[in-house]
Amino acid sequence: PIFVCDGDDDCGDASDEEKCSAPTCGQHEFHCNDSECIPALWSCDGDPDCKDKSDESMERCSRRTEPQKPRCLVSEFQCGSGECVHLNWKCDGDPDCKDKSDEANCPLLTCRPDEFQCGDGSCIHGTKQCNKVHDCPDYSDEAGCVNVTKCDGPKKFRCKNGECIDSSKVCDNVKDCKDWSDEPVECGLNECADNNGGCSHICKDQRIGYECDCPSGYKLLDKKTCGDIDECENPDACSQICINYKGDYKCECYEGYEMDPASKTCKAVGKSPYLLFTNRHEIRRIHLLKSEYTQVVPTLKNAVALDVDVSTNKMFWCDLYHQKIYSAYINKASDSSQQVTLIDSLHSPEGLAVDWVHKNIYWTDSGNKSISVATGDGRKRKMLITTELNEPRAIAVDPHQGFMYWSDWGGQAKIEKAGMNGVDRQILVSEHIEGPNGITLDLSNRRLYWVDSKLHLLSSVDFNGDNRKVLLSSHHHLGHPFALTVFEDRVYWTDLEDEAIYSANRLTGHDVAKVAEDLNNPLDLVVFHEQRQPKGPDTCNMGTLPNGGCEYLCLKAPQITDHSPKYTCACPDGMELGPDMRRCAISNTTTTTPTTVATTTTPSTTTTTTTTTTTTTSATTTLPPTAKTTTPAPPQTTRSGRITEHPRTPAATSTETTSLSSTSQKSTSTHTPLLAAVAPNSIQKESNANLSHRVPILATVVIGLLCTGGYLVWRNWRRKNTKSMNFDNPVYRKTTEDDDDEIHIGRQSESIGHVYPAVSDEMQKKRGERGVAL
């Protein structure tokens, strides 16, 4: 009866769906003429969703002056409460909308007759029910089962029909098993007496038959022959290094680590490790050994991504509110005057990674769909990857091998890798992944770890994308994981739903522990210890030429083979490497602006006008600090070909300039007394003629400048009086037409997420007076 009137044709002739009462639609649903229920937002959207197309009927939709514009992308589903979630999250058994409309009106999943239906609707094979193994995610397959009598151990004998009798009743000339399998013809026969039963090592005679066995450190290969056990084939056998011996194995540690005699695990040598993490408004520190909890950076606006350079004791962070990247020495970071602005004019920087060997920084920007690199002082920068990125999130680098790794949760979620110079791009993980948030690298053991906030998983793969392993699957401990890091034998992660930091064994996923709780939106986190950033040679400064001889950026190249280059040079956006592959030249795609230069020759009476074509990357005009630039101006190039670097500004400086691509040069006209004495009348006539031609041109130029200035003033006034903020959510993108006061970021905004308060008019005014562009 549960299959009758469930909306599915189970009989094949649809007879189980006949004579069914019309379903009652919900508050946010539209009732089709054929009794089907669909979300109300789908009505009159230009796409028929009812089977009878009644949601797009002329009678209903003609009443509207214009069709309702969809607010979500084609690849997204619009919730009844206004959010946009991935389309493949609809009807997946996990509610993602606030009103759970993505799980409404979903067809009931029916299992085959030989399958068992779990409590969450999924199906498993019928033989897996009551097999003492939890095969259903909700463990419903083992609920209500009667434990079968165990028949294990030397004192028990299992008959062939499944009965269990005492082993003393075997071969006692009494048929205790109903199938008489306890009294076979082998009773009383000692097979081990003849050639050790064919066993290579140990033969054990039993009441019925015999079995071969092996000494410690060996295993049976073919039920008779013993072979050495390679314990090192098990990746969890040792913490770091495993050495196999015949019949035994030994664990050792990498340089910089020591074996703990108590736990037999490798412990890092050096100072006490501690965690640094962001919670939007602060950066805090937790000592892993002392359990001390302190504040490092106070009063931040919206700090999300975080990384460190252990060798210089520096920390770097991204602020989504200011759309900038900052740095500071950790012991001075609490002083705002010591916080330096490295990169500005960003969109939505969500991931950050420090190359501690070559002193560069890498970041992802989900706003302009890019991955960029800059020098550690922020003076030189370049976008490395700008194609086939949907929602780039976290990023991590391996400066020794020259690879960077990043997660992308958009459309087709995936984890990718590429050289730190942007070449050799490839996909590592693209299957069974939906919401990859944080990623981290275990350089010692060459594995990548990530958390999936949609599937509630903690997983790892090697650096080639092979040997994938799920360490932990838990809605409780992985409700909404955001970031993670690895140190020694533990993996640490932040969870927005529980507002806590957890840890677990990085090899098995066992021994889950709560490191800290009640943290108020913990986001990114890193471990500060020298072994997290092993030292290596700076290949860009190993030779006689500084910066590898590169005019602009020197980037580590991926070490694919022994013959791979150690580094390559790179140029700023809009420029490319010249023939020597070191110096930069104007890109062929750069626009050329004709510039007219008027010159007057003194010995002659003829005034000549020479037209030259000047290629400019940026001719700047400094305006009052009223508008914030959305795209950084590329470095300027002088006539000599030198590149002007991006200036570094302290965090306290908020004045910004607007660069206009305009070039103006004044033409000068020189009249000598000699020319006036020789031909005064002709010169006067020529001057009058030239003046009559120049007056309209000058008037046109003046009018154009006035219009341009008026437009800039109007645009600045409009920006100052407009409240807006765009942020691409790591889980879903929320439309803000119905909520101007705040933006909620998270899977379920009631329990998790980041709330961005709207900027008040008074704050806008104050920022405008200080020259800060909102």
TrEMBL record:
A single MF term (Gene Ontology): calcium ion binding
One GO CC annotation: apical plasma membrane
Pfam families for the chain: EGF_CA, FXa_inhibition, Ldl_recept_a, Ldl_recept_b
Subcellular location: Endomembrane system
Descriptive protein name: EGF-like domain-containing protein
Kinase is among the record's keywords: no
Occurrences of domain EGF-like (ranges): 212-226, 251-266
Keyword Disulfide bond applies: yes
Main localization of the protein described in the UniProt heading: membrane
Residue numbers spanned by region Disordered: 593-671
The entry's keywords: Disulfide bond, EGF-like domain, Endocytosis, Glycoprotein, Membrane, Receptor, Repeat, Signal, Transmembrane, Transmembrane helix
InterPro entries: 6-blade_b-propeller_TolB-like, EGF, EGF-like_Ca-bd_dom, EGF-type_Asp/Asn_hydroxyl_site, EGF_Ca-bd_CS, Growth_fac_rcpt_cys_sf, LDL_receptor-like_sf, LDLR-related
Highest taxon above the source species: Eukaryota
GO process terms (BP): receptor-mediated endocytosis
Ranges of Low complexity composition bias in the record: 593-631, 653-671
Disulphide-bridged cysteine pairs: C25-C37, C32-C50, C72-C84, C79-C97, C91-C106, C111-C123, C118-C136, C130-C145, C159-C177
Topology in membrane: Single-pass type I membrane protein
Family of the protein in this entry: Belongs to the LDLR family.
Naturally occurring in which organism (per UniProt): Astatotilapia calliptera (Eastern happy)
Residue ranges of LDL-receptor class B repeats: 313-358, 359-401, 402-445, 446-490
Residue ranges crossing the lipid bilayer per the database entry: 695-714
